[in-house]
Every structure is written in C-alpha cells, then in structure tokens.
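Researcher: I'd like a structural prediction for the single chain below. Treat it as a standalone chain; there are no partners to consider.
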Amino acid sequence: MASEKPQKIAVLMGGRSSEREISIKTGKQISQALAGEGYEVKEFDPAGALVNGLKDFQPDVVFIALHGKYGEDGTMQGLLELLGFPYTGPGVLSSALCMDKVIAKKVMCYEGIPTPSFHVITEELEEGAVENLIKELGLPLVVKPSKQGSAIGVSIVREKGELEKALNEALKYDQAVLVEAYIDGTELTAAVLGTKNPRVLPLVEIVFETEFYDYTAKYSPGMSHHIIPARISPEAAAKVEELALRTYRAMDCCQLSRVDFMLNSEGQPFVLETNTIPGMTETSLFPDAAKAAGISFAELVSLLVDEAFILAKEGDA
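Model: Treating it as a single chain, here is the predicted structure.
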C-alpha cells in the first residue's frame, strides 16, 4: 500500500445470517456515502465468491457491513487477517466475545460491570426448571438467543406460562439461550468511537411503539424514536458514559462499537450488550449519535475507513 490514504474500498454486505436483509441496507448506504466522498467502491456478498473477488480487487480497506453469524462473530475478521486486508471495526477476539452474549456477560461480571442477573439454558427444561428460573430471577424475564442480533428470537416473559414458549422460540436460533432479569426503565445506547482515545458520542434514548425494541421497532420507520441527548440527569449520563468506556475496553473493542443500556428508576445503569458492527440504516442509532456530535454519515464512514488504514500501517489492526 503505497498511498498515504486509502483509495479502494470493498464493502461486505449480505452474507448468510438471519440479518442478511439489514446488512444489505447498511452496506448500500455505506457504499453510496463512500463513493460520494471519492473512494473507488466495490460491493461484495460473502454468499458468493468472496476470496477471489477480493484478491482481484485488492482493496486498501474492507468495510464490514455484515451482521450476525459469519460477519460479526470474528470469522470474517479472521479471514481478512489471513488474506492481509485491513478492515473496519473490532478484531477477531472482540467480535467473537461481543457476539456471544453468554461469554460477554461473564466478562462483564468479572470486570464488575453492572449487568442484569441471568441464567443460561442449553437444552430443553427439566421438570421444575421453570419454577427455579422464576424463583432465581423473578418476573418479567427477557429471553434471547446467545448469538443473534437485531432482537431476533427475543421475547419478554411476563407470566410463568409464557416462559416455555419463549425458550423454544429462542432455541430455534441458537443452542444456548440467555434468560435475564427484566430491568424496567429507560433504554439507552452509547456509541463509542475511536481506538487510542475512544470517546462516547451523545447518548441516545430509545422510545418505541412495540413492547420492546424488537426487529420491527429497529428497522421500520416511525416505530421508534431516538431522543438525543437522552433525557436523563447529568449524574446518570456520567455513569453511563463511564460504563460504556469500561465495557468497550473490557471487550477489547477498537474503532467503534455501540453499548446498550437500561437505566432503572433509581438511576443505576445496566449494560445489556455490545454491538461491534452497529447498523447504519436510515433508522439506526450510531449514525444518529454521530450526527448529534456534528459528524455527518459520509464523514463517519470515511473516518472509519481512514482509521482502519492507519491502524494497519501502524501494525495495530
């Protein structure tokens, strides 16, 4: 790479996960923005002949716009490292950690980062298990597959009779299911940007029309609203920002990630999860937070491409 600035950008979108369609929407917006900034852009779908296509194109940076399995879980990051192509977003370890909600929760517990109490289910419930879960965690409960994004397979359980159905639904998507205590309060997200000196962008409060921030609320215009800055006290905001940076570092993130929170009525934030490849559609949270910080969408994607290029040259990627 002789150039001091990246010129050729490969945008990966689509893939084989259940989040394929969202990935394509994200990738198309990124491609258009980068092309508008003067980069030579080529789109790739890993469901096709990816390796030979990348070798022929020889990109300066690969922009990963994949979500879910085979894109956000460290597998694509590992492949790109083997091929020698710089890429946007966190590395192999961080991607794998954050994609596996069970492992991520264990890391947070080890680091003393507040997160809702939880239990892991890996097979059909034995007799009496439902009662034990409710006794341990109470009601309501949140049931989610360990390695899915976009709220796919997630249920809110408010009554004992709903739990078995919710578990069976989540088990359709993953062999491990996370059952969490439900935190009633304000849903927030903290977009974190940067590697050597990461910063938290303005906090976003999420208000939605559905029971919770599910797939429909995330990706249907008008079904959710982003309030920036979040309507919380300065003290609560400071706690959220501090925990966002602690989580970002604990998960070994770089370049960007989005840390999701629930803030209870007492002003205590709880970290739910970390997203290493946040959505970049017209209804997505990360671009809205960046816009509130004075960073346009085109500037955001250009910044990520440039940083990936610099990190690779420095040997830190």
